[in-house]
Write a structure and sequence with these properties.
The chain is 78% helix and 10% strand. It is mostly helical.
């Protein structure tokens, strides 16, 4: 329903506003607000649950990594100790071999000198 008035050479149009049954009524705003609040609360609760889940995942992953790191550290320490023990044994064996070589070299020199005198 349009009403047009002429006022001082200016056209003014007055438009009657109709509200549709589901548009901008107080009941509609109340329902919309209630639904929005319910949805936001549900989203907040899902967020809290997700944070809890993520916290549990990170805690478990951290614990697993710590356990694995401890096992690796223990294995590495054992390996280093074994390697060090083997190094010490090899050094001792090398000393024995050098001593034997020295003795053998002395015996050889004595034999060589003896041959020179006996010849």
């Amino acid at each position: 329903f349009l009403i047009s008035k002429r006022l001082h050479y200016v056209d003014i149009m007055v438009i009657q506003t109709h509200f549709f049954h589901s548009q901008s009524s107080p009941e509609h705003w109340e329902n919309f607000t209630r639904e929005t609040l319910q949805e936001s609360e549900a989203t907040r609760q899902r967020s809290v649950a997700l944070r809890g889940t993520l916290d549990a995942i990170l805690t478990n992953a951290s614990r697993d990594l710590r356990t694995q790191a401890d096992k690796v550290e223990a294995a590495l320490s054992k390996r280093v100790a074994c390697t060090d023990e083997i190094r010490i044994r090899l050094e001792n064996e090398l000393k024995k071999v050098r001593c034997r070589l020295f003795v053998i070299d002395n015996i050889y020199n004595h034999i060589t000198i003896s041959r020179c005198y006996n010849a």
